[in-house]
Amino acid sequence: MDFEFDATTEDYRKRLLAFMDEHVYPAEAGYHSDGWEPPAVLESLKVAAKAAGLWNLFLPGEHGAGLTNLQYAPLAEITGRSPAIAPAALNCAAPDTGNMEVLAEFGTPQQREQWLRPLLDGTIRSAFAMTEPQVASSDATNIGTRIERDGDEYVINGHKFYITGAMNPNCRIFIVMGKTDPDAERHVQQSQILVPRDTPGLTVKRGMTVFGYTDGDHGGHAELIFENVRVPVSNLIGVEGGGFAISQARLGPGRIHHCMRLIGMAERGLELMCRRSLARAPFGKPLAEQGVVQDWIAESRVRIEQARLLVLKAAWLMDTVGNKGAHTEIQAIKIVVPSTVEWILDKAIQAHGAAGTSQDTPLAALWAAARTLRLADGPDEVHKRSLARRELNRYRSRP
Amino acid sequence: MDFEFDATTEDYRKRLLAFMDEHVYPAEAGYHSDGWEPPAVLESLKVAAKAAGLWNLFLPGEHGAGLTNLQYAPLAEITGRSPAIAPAALNCAAPDTGNMEVLAEFGTPQQREQWLRPLLDGTIRSAFAMTEPQVASSDATNIGTRIERDGDEYVINGHKFYITGAMNPNCRIFIVMGKTDPDAERHVQQSQILVPRDTPGLTVKRGMTVFGYTDGDHGGHAELIFENVRVPVSNLIGVEGGGFAISQARLGPGRIHHCMRLIGMAERGLELMCRRSLARAPFGKPLAEQGVVQDWIAESRVRIEQARLLVLKAAWLMDTVGNKGAHTEIQAIKIVVPSTVEWILDKAIQAHGAAGTSQDTPLAALWAAARTLRLADGPDEVHKRSLARRELNRYRSRP
Amino acid sequence: MDFEFDATTEDYRKRLLAFMDEHVYPAEAGYHSDGWEPPAVLESLKVAAKAAGLWNLFLPGEHGAGLTNLQYAPLAEITGRSPAIAPAALNCAAPDTGNMEVLAEFGTPQQREQWLRPLLDGTIRSAFAMTEPQVASSDATNIGTRIERDGDEYVINGHKFYITGAMNPNCRIFIVMGKTDPDAERHVQQSQILVPRDTPGLTVKRGMTVFGYTDGDHGGHAELIFENVRVPVSNLIGVEGGGFAISQARLGPGRIHHCMRLIGMAERGLELMCRRSLARAPFGKPLAEQGVVQDWIAESRVRIEQARLLVLKAAWLMDTVGNKGAHTEIQAIKIVVPSTVEWILDKAIQAHGAAGTSQDTPLAALWAAARTLRLADGPDEVHKRSLARRELNRYRSRP
Amino acid sequence: MDFEFDATTEDYRKRLLAFMDEHVYPAEAGYHSDGWEPPAVLESLKVAAKAAGLWNLFLPGEHGAGLTNLQYAPLAEITGRSPAIAPAALNCAAPDTGNMEVLAEFGTPQQREQWLRPLLDGTIRSAFAMTEPQVASSDATNIGTRIERDGDEYVINGHKFYITGAMNPNCRIFIVMGKTDPDAERHVQQSQILVPRDTPGLTVKRGMTVFGYTDGDHGGHAELIFENVRVPVSNLIGVEGGGFAISQARLGPGRIHHCMRLIGMAERGLELMCRRSLARAPFGKPLAEQGVVQDWIAESRVRIEQARLLVLKAAWLMDTVGNKGAHTEIQAIKIVVPSTVEWILDKAIQAHGAAGTSQDTPLAALWAAARTLRLADGPDEVHKRSLARRELNRYRSRP
């Protein structure tokens, strides 16, 4: 047992921290989108990140930086300190990361050439269209969208919403989850298929806000209508019925990334809370000397340390025993990290007074992001129930 | 001791509930402001409210409906079920209510004629400019804005922010808090003065968002700059040095109103949580039969009942022993109600999944309003400290 | 709506507060039972209470003081400040109160003569034997104990535990709940029957501790074995099959009493927390000036105020619309009061350091009592589920 | 970074788990002390532990098993599953462990011969007398006990309480903390000195209970009076003025041990909660299928995993950078572990109903132990304040 980062990780951390100071934080002041697409400055940040060798860090294997989950996790944490900018600047932003992983692992050479290459180059964006308005997002087997074969084409009909990134005009390709065979066994009914944005019959109906935010930095969340959308059969990813398995494969790394970025958000919130507490002295006494504020700061530090270790252990398990062996821990971090970080950001907001709820600090937007992650991939409650069942199973057969 | 509403209250409740069904809820779908002013439909709602005899209910005495705090409180709760519409429709929205109370109690006949009358008629709106960016809003004695006499005029210089309603172009008059004598005893340094919106030197600099929302339904929150703003001495409210006392006087009723509207918001959230739980059945079982959701519902009901009784008792105390005698209870409701309601709304959001965070339900906006009230009039922590000191004082002199 | 106590209540409160000062608090220091029966000093306190006209206050109607629930509730609160002594001194201690209510309402003249009279006189104690080790105490319909008619006798067989007061040798009579007809409809299978302590076949097996305490002040909690215990048919209370209904009837007042005593316990805890905070100054600063301690004190005050109002409203509802009409509120106070009071006592203990966990303050024993009440009459979770279902029912039939 | 135990640890874990199954759990049923000394069966368990090579595992260096903190921590966790028996059986129980560490590191050859040897052999017990009734236990610099030199002797006068283990007649030696020079600089006023139990002038006044428990398994907690107690100067440990430094040295390992045992207690509680939930089905549905119980189980698992990792990291830091470098983490585990474990045990109790509060499960006693550790070595709040200050210091000098 050893709690030290390896040399590769430390080297990347050092360079990434410098990049944050030099490029990312200075860009924050001007980085705000009222609409549905990222600010123009993002393009120059991407150029700088490529030049600094900080590009596609998330992706293991030949197509990316080749880091393990345990090596990438501390880097994802650092990007989470400025989550609207840094992940996109480094081409490490969701949902593109998951889509690139899927194409790298399951895509045909043609699919990789056509879609993975521009995604890896950062010239286009993508979205993953799974969630539906009439179906609990936690229950993927219930999806209503149909993908029906008709000769050399698949015909797609369905209704999706909360599709992250889809309002961005530069989002050129959707990976769509739907049912190719509703009568098959429960976990092989679904397939995933590539649908270019400009395919006839696909309507990006509207953007959906998140607590008043458009989330325009990555294009926001869209409602999509698929009406007799036709794509060639070569657009299918993997095999018919493989959609559920592919979506499970992307879950593990995605949760590590999300959770480590959340840790970074919490660190940012804690830093802002400390700085504000030192700077403000209502009633003649710095907030930093108020017992209640000290309690928030101490609790925040303690909770961050615990949460980070659990995420790192989950990453280590994924590297050593695989997605399946890390199941409990991956579920555990999904349960504990968003709510923990939400709590810390709430206290940071409180320490800032009204300003903490406004556009004058990043805190309110960070909070909204953390809050939303208590729901993304299914509400925490569903994951708790599942984790509890596994815990109980340990005792079912033992007297 | 008796927990039944009197006949007057019951009569108003009945009529107001009918008004909500007939006018307010139907208006909700179309009631959304992307900008900084209320939707046009508000004007027709105001006509309907006047016709229904549901106008200026908040105001005791001859200028208003003449209700006690205890009689008005349950009506404020009902308007809180649709807080973006109902209070404004009934001319019972903050901060106009407090401003009207101040003008009715402390205004000169001329001030009442010029500003109270159009406010009572609902033809203009107003704002209360106290909070400053460099000063803790909980510490009114620290205010930096200067109000200096120069012949027949006062000259105002200062910087205000988070001034609710000030972005609304129909907000024609500001009551501004500033110091007329910084060298006087601590609580008589401040004065309040009327400043029309179009006075030279007054700049409405920008709107401030709240968790991404403009709060445009009542005009949003503005940052204001006062640079050598000149108004006639007759614009002073009350006497020089009376500003702090006037602001204390408005606090009591304001908190009752806010807290009762919050109770209404919580009831709305609980209703939506129940309806959603009955309607959705992920994994084949209605949410309403999930133990965790039942726990949220029961906790919500129990917390609402407790909080409501405490607000009603505070209102009763204000009516029977006055603002000062009700001090502890007024502080207690400020401490407990916003955080309680925030908790309930959070659970209602969780029961709705991603949709709960979007514009498709009122929940996210209600949540942001409740969250903000944990900071308005000073953060909860300041009020807890003050209440604790009073509690401790009971034992200081007793062995 | 009116939040003032009536004159009768105020008169009793005044006299009871004087009795506490004169008799109860001074007795606390010497009042400790290592074994299973109350200290001898209790008898003289009972004499004093009778003399002061503070006897059987709990009992409405001709047999007792004739107070309403709303009148008795504030008196129960006061006795709760010293719950090991005051309720027993005033002959208002559970489970005798419930047993006396049952005998007064459902007993035959002979039963009343034989058992109610000495209970009213305070010469004997009693217990209520319902809970069983193999059955969830929240599910009364599941009870395993059998009461079978055999000629002029009933024969009782069963196993009970956690029977409060039964270890006290002065506990002369048990009211036993069991099934007379296991095949009848679910709520008419049970009956209640009087079993004198010395009946052959009844074994008081052992005392059961509560967090290390014997709870010896009222005799502790016993495990009982009934083996062919025979009593005359005249010992049946009410009719065969009436047991469930009788047990429901005693629940309402019992919960009011328990909850109001808990409020008194919380007030005691808060007082001790305040006094300790003023008296101790680790690191040179009184605890009373520590922000975190102030936060505890303020939260305690606010929670107490809310909880008390809810219990008083439940009492008022019982008086005005009856046990059934007050169902939701009676359940609500069972849910909220024990956990609230437990929280307050935990903070009071923390403010006392190690001493707070020892016999040197009443806090640890008060805490154990509050903790246990989260389980008595069924765990909170069962009551929450039931309350949630009623809440949900409001929306089942309404679109 | 690597989360796997090394081979030595795994070997010890395997043998210790077998010892628990073979010797410890079977002894639990009969292991209960009503008085102030451990049950007689303990002696045979000690023989078995020695035979199994599971003796003095806590002690690094030549005198003990020579394990690092990181190697011993997982073993301490296992002993925590039966904390009244296993630590004492393995001669790894507090406060002897800390006393042995102190004697091994700071004792003279004669002190080691006279006291360390029988302690290592398990033939006597010891206590550490620091806490005083009039001084916050978190503020060691405030201690009132005097240790004054008089020729070849030291004369000790003072008042101690809550001295763990001191009621055990087999506790033969006290390490007493007192002031040799009250006028010296703050951290060199104190010294530690050995005082045999039978020294004239030392009175073991009474035992102090903890939530009704005597904690008799290790001898309970005593109040001690020192009146002109004389010991030879050779009884001083280290140098005059070295007492504070010595007490700091023992803190680090002590917290690791306590916290890892607490993790084991939590695992035990979780196991009992799971087993009970599978076994009981009130209202016809196993508790294990109740959503609220599943929520408890999942939360418990997630909290345990996080807490364990933080304690292990603290142990690793102690091994790699020393007590001082691990300061933040040692404080962090003191803050988070007892309250986390208390929460889990509370839920386990709740799942057991009334039985959970009684002597029929170990849960209530485990709970009392965890609760007390929120106070031992100073209340959590003191540690939070200190940790917060260190966190704030990171930003004091950085703009």
Automatic annotation (TrEMBL), chains A, B, C, D:
Homodimer. GO terms for cellular component: cytoplasm. Residues 9-122 form the Acyl-CoA dehydrogenase/oxidase N-terminal domain. GO terms for molecular function: acyl-CoA dehydrogenase activity; flavin adenine dinucleotide binding. The keyword Cell inner membrane does not apply. Residues 127-229 form the Acyl-CoA oxidase/dehydrogenase middle domain. It holds the Pfam family Acyl-CoA_dh_1. Residues 241-390 form the Acyl-CoA dehydrogenase/oxidase C-terminal domain. GO terms for biological process: fatty acid beta-oxidation using acyl-CoA dehydrogenase. Keywords: FAD, Flavoprotein, Oxidoreductase. The gene is acd_3. This is Acyl-CoA dehydrogenase. Belongs to the acyl-CoA dehydrogenase family. It comes from the Bacteria. Its cofactor is FAD.
